[in-house]
């Protein structure tokens, strides 16, 4: 075995003093490595950390009730699982399919969304299938955003938007959702976009604005008027709109999801993103789609062709079947597009109630499966948390780490979804995911009930 | 306005174009590089088992690779590479080997870097280099002169020519062994030559080894990462799709020293993030089974090359029967054939500016109903005219498909001899 190999092996197999000896001996090797040109490309500078890397391992402890990461622990509908098992038993379904999307799937998407948009959608030119909504966001940024562009991002935002904009060489420009004054926030509708502030963010360099409706993490659904305001600016400044609508079916009673691409003048400048994972509660299938005009979609297709070429076939076949099945059921109670939202509304309300019991204040979401919770009323003493990070760590980060450790309940800190300038406005909130089975919500409920009691006895 | 990085020459479009043409003419398709037979039963069963597993099988798994999969890959490949591979530091699971290549270029190639590509090359390497802001520098494998070129082993890389391509801007070299389209399996001495240059000039090596289990005639697949001084500078890329004849599952991986893999993880986490869970679980089970059966006759890694060995022979004899000169591949899915001995009158004036092999392939689809891929598609613009007398066949097909091809070739040779 070569000297270099020996030292590499030594340094990771052994910890402690043997490693130190090995490090001394291997100095010349590591020196060579450090002086080598095995450095990374500039495009990833500063993009290595993210909130999930930090919190997933903390929450992975099985004794922790995980309301952090956004995925269901409820089972997906059985017919999608069956469709997948069936697809794998068909020879052809185990080999490469069409790069831009398996024909049955793009046709199903064209039908479902043709109906929703009220316009014909060309399955081959106006649809791209991607690896999750995430992959659609990436294809969109890489396909349409250039070095030196500005991209407007509304805070709070799904955290990947910023690194993706940066990786494309562009600059994120932030505008926060603001709380209506005088209101102690109770619903996501109490957050709004200031029209003058929004208008001021558009410059000659603005390539696009990213919107997410229903929004992760707040759960706000942008109203028609708000979307019209955004549309007017896009048209005035000739910018694109990237509309992340992965939670489009998770709309609660009294709410309406409006697609900005259906507003006049918007189809030709909008990419709308959807997700099979969120639609069918199968986040682990990682299939999503981008819908838009051919002159934009073709650039996303070029990215696809040069990044991963094609998405898995059997998964696409199964999603196609799930979509066609539900297409038939639209308007009926069994239609998953509406039945899931009904099921989740109950969980939402339950979550809000148990959170209130613990003295926290929920922000009732109009859509999506997350809930913001204001923990400031607790005035929780976090001093027994040894912070191994600097003291500049935002309150919500500290609170969530404390809560995982002391209460065995995981959430996600909301400042992970905002820029530094907005940290102080959001650091009293944590994000809970409520697409969880009853036993999980029961367990969370027990912790929150106990919390309240512990606080009472300690006073 | 499309992003400037989209000024990538759309080299892959030939794949789409020829697929459409083949479908239009209902051609027997030996062009596309995937099996038309089913994956082995044990692997489809593993997938079905995963699908009926609990809810976690349908939700996000670990972003850099499903634990069961990275652990089985680490266990399996450690003994082959001769290095203890850390499943969590040294492996990244990707959506097919294609995405692993993408992560490697994006993570490690910067504006102005040069990347040496050995030709003929799988056509995605070039646009990926360009998309990363790099510059592709080509060095071709050349048939040895003086002897009859009968095997892919007769195509070699000149050490001097390779060394002459290295400049202070060279960051990496990309090799593919077994090679698509040629089928060459690099010998240990050849890899050592490349390794020596990598070490001397401190280069990275991206080694695309998706066909690693498909070697014939006793050729041995050697991993360049197992050579001294190479583990720390090599990214080795593998494919579940090619390994288990399930190309549509799109499960691939990159393996290498953690200090390099970590950069690829950053690209992955900001582009795709997670790969499908159930497919990864199935591939993990596949590797567990192969670990148990390694080296035995029940191993799929023995059975598949044995089966394909015969298909390869069958296709070669059909081609010789019509006067074509196949170059026997030592490994992989493909066989290239010298078409220079056949004179064809292309009546199609539309294609007269295209390379000879492109015209030949279109003619073959339209006139004979047989689909293949022109080999100059796997060459740089500067060398494509030198190598435009070859077409590529995929022999990883059912016997019935190869029989149908044989029929077409027989009829063709009868037509020729009757003139």
Précis, in short:
The complex is a heterodimer of chains A (459) and B (419). Chain A is α/β, with parallel strands linked by helices.
Strands side by side in the biggest sheet of chain A: 2-10-9-8-7-3-4
> Residue-averaged pLDDT of chain B, rounded?
93
Counting DSSP H or I runs of 4 or more residues, the number of helices of chain B is 13
Q: How many separate helices of chain A?
A: 17
Tell me how many strands of chain A there are.
15
**Which bin fits the share of residues in helices of chain A?**
40-55%
- Strand tally of chain B is 15
Helix-strand makeup class of chain A: alpha/beta
Major β-sheet annotation of chain A: 7 strands, mixed
Question: What fraction of the residues of chain A are assigned to beta strands by DSSP?
Answer: 5-15%
The end-to-end distance of chain B, rounded to whole angstroms, is 56 Å
The main β sheet of chain B shows up as: 7 strands, mixed
Share in helix of chain B: 25-40%
Distance between the termini of chain A: 65 Å
Protein name (chain B): Aminotransferase class I/classII large domain-containing protein
Catalytic activity (chain B): an S-substituted L-cysteine + H2O = a thiol + pyruvate + NH4(+); L-kynurenine + 2-oxoglutarate = kynurenate + L-glutamate + H2O
Family (chain B): Belongs to the class-I pyridoxal-phosphate-dependent aminotransferase family.
Keywords (chain B): Aminotransferase, Pyridoxal phosphate, Transferase
Characterize the structure shown:
The complex is a heterodimer of chains A (459) and B (419). With 459 residues, chain A is an alpha/beta fold. Chain A contains 17 helices and 15 strands. Chain A has helices at residues 3-13, 17-25, 27-35, 51-59, 78-88, 103-117, 132-144, 161-167, 195-201, 224-237, 276-279, 294-305, 313-329, 336-357, 395-407, 423-426, 438-458; strands at 65-66, 127-130, 150-155, 171-176, 178-179, 191-192, 206-212, 240-244, 270-275, 288-291, 361-363, 370-374, 409-410, 412-413, 429-433. In chain A, the strands form four sheets. In chain A, strands 2-10-9-8-7-3-4 form a seven-stranded mixed beta sheet, with helices on both faces. A four-stranded antiparallel beta sheet of chain A has the order 11-12-15-14, with helices on one face. In chain A, a hairpin with a 6-residue loop joins strand 11 (361-363) and strand 12 (370-374). In chain A, helix 6 packs parallel to helix 13 and helix 7 crosses helix 12. The longest helix of chain A has 22 residues, at 336-357. Chain A starts with a helix and ends with a helix. Chain B has 419 residues and is of the alpha/beta class. Chain B is globular, with a radius of gyration of 21 Å. Chain B contains 13 helices and 15 strands. Chain B starts with 12 loop residues before the first helix and ends with a helix. In chain B, helix 4 packs parallel to helix 5 and helix 11 runs parallel beside helix 13. Chain B has helices spanning 13-24, 41-51, 67-81, 96-108, 125-131, 159-164, 188-200, 240-243, 258-269, 277-293, 300-321, 356-368, 399-417; strands spanning 28-29, 91-94, 114-119, 135-140, 142-143, 155-156, 170-176, 204-208, 234-239, 252-255, 325-327, 334-338, 370-371, 373-374, 390-394. Chain B has a seven-stranded mixed beta sheet with strand order 2-10-9-8-7-3-4, sandwiched between helices. In chain B, 56% of the residues are buried. At the A-B interface, helix 1, helix 5, helix 7, helix 8 and helix 12 of A face helix 2, helix 4, helix 5, helix 9 and helix 10 of B.
């Amino acid at each position: 075995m070569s000297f270099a190999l020996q030292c590499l092996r030594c340094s990771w197999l052994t910890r402690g003093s043997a490693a130190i000896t090995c490090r001394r001996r291997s100095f010349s090797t590591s020196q060579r490595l450090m002086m080598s040109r095995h450095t990374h490309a500039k495009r990833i500078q500063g993009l290595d950390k993210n909130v999930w890397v930090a919190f997933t391992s903390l929450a992975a402890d099985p004794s922790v009730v995980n309301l952090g990461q956004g995925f269901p622990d409820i089972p997906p509908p059985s017919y999608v699982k069956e469709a997948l098992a069936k697809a794998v038993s068909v020879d052809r379904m185990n080999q490469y399919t069409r790069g831009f999307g398996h024909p049955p799937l793009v046709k199903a998407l064209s039908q479902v969304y043709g109906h929703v948009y009220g316009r014909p959608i060309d399955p081959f030119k106006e649809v791209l299938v991607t690896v999750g909504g995430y992959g659609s966001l990436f294809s969109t940024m890489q396909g349409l955003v250039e070095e030196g562009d500005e991209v407007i991002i509304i805070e709070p935002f799904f955290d990947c938007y910023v690194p993706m904009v940066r990786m494309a060489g562009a600059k994120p420009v932030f505008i926060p959702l603001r709380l209506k004054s005088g209101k102690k926030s109770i619903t996501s509708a109490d957050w709004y976009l200031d029209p003058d502030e929004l208008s001021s963010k558009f410059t000659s360099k603005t390539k696009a604005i990213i919107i997410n409706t229903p929004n992760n993490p707040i759960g706000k659904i942008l109203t028609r008027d708000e979307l019209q305001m955004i549309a007017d600016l896009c048209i005035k400044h000739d910018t694109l709109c990237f509309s992340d609508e992965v939670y489009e079916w998770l709309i609660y009673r009294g709410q309406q999801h409006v697609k900005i691409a259906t507003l006049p003048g918007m189809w030709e400048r909008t990419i709308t993103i959807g997700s099979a994972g969120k639609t069918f509660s199968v986040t682990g299938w990682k299939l999503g789609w981008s819908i838009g005009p051919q002159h934009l979609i073709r650039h996303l297709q070029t990215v696809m062709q040069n990044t991963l070429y094609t998405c898995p076939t059997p998964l696409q076949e199964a999603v196609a079947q799930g979509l066609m099945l539900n297409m038939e059921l639209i308007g009926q109670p069994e239609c998953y597009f509406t039945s899931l939202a009904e099921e989740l509304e109950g969980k939402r309300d339950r979550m809000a109630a148990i959170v209130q019991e613990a003295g926290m204040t929920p922000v009732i979401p109009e859509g999506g499966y997350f809930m913001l919770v204001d923990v400031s009323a607790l005035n929780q003493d976090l001093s027994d948390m040894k912070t191994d990070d600097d003291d500049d760590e935002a309150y919500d980060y500290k609170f969530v780490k404390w809560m995982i450790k002391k209460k065995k309940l995981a959430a996600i800190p909301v400042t992970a979804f905002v820029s530094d300038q907005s940290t102080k406005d959001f650091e009293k909130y944590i994000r809970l995911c409520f697409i969880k089975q009853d036993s999980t919500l029961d367990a969370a409920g027990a912790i929150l009930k106990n919390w309240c009691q512990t606080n009472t006895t300690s006073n | 306005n499309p992003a400037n990085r989209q000024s990538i020459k759309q080299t892959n479009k030939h794949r789409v174009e020829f697929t459409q043409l083949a479908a239009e003419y209902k051609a027997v398709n030996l062009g596309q590089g995937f099996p038309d037979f089913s994956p082995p039963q044990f692997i489809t069963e593993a997938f079905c088992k995963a699908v009926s597993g609990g809810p976690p099988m349908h939700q996000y798994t670990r972003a850099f690779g499903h634990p069961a999969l990275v652990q089985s890959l680490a266990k399996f490949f450690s003994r082959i590479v001769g290095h203890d591979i850390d499943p969590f530091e040294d492996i990244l699971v990707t959506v097919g080997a294609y995405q692993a290549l993408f992560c490697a270029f994006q993570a490690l190639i910067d504006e102005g870097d040069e990347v040496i590509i050995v030709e003929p090359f799988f056509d995605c390497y070039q646009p990926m280099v360009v998309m990363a802001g790099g510059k592709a520098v080509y060095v071709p494998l050349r048939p040895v002169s003086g002897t009859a070129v009968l095997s892919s082993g007769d195509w070699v890389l000149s050490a001097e020519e390779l060394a002459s391509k290295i400049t202070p801007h060279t960051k990496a070299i990309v090799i593919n062994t077994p090679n698509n389209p040629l089928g060459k399996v690099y010998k240990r001495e050849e890899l050592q030559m490349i390794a020596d240059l990598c070490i001397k000039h401190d280069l990275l090596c991206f080694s695309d080894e998706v066909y690693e289990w498909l070697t014939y005639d006793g050729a041995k697949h050697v991993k360049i990462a197992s050579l001294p001084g190479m583990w720390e500078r090599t990214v080795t890329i593998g494919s579940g799709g090619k390994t288990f004849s399930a190309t549509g599952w799109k499960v691939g991986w990159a393996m290498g020293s953690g200090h390099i893999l970590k950069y690829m993880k950053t690209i992955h986490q900001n582009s795709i993030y997670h790969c499908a869970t159930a497919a990864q679980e199935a591939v993990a089970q596949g590797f567990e089974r192969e670990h148990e059966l390694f080296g035995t006759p029940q191993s799929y890694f023995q059975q598949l090359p044995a089966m394909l060995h015969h298909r390869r022979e069958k296709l070669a004899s059909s081609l010789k029967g019509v006067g074509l000169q196949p170059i026997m591949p030592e490994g992989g899915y493909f066989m290239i054939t010298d078409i220079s001995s056949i004179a064809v009158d292309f009546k199609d004036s539309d294609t007269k500016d295209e390379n000879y092999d492109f015209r030949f392939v279109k003619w073959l689809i339209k006139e004979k109903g047989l689909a293949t891929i022109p080999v100059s598609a796997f060459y740089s613009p500067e060398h494509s005219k030198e190598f435009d007398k070859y077409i590529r066949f995929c022999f990883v097909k059912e016997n019935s498909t190869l029989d149908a091809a044989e029929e077409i070739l027989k009829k063709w040779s009868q037509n020729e001899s009757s003139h």
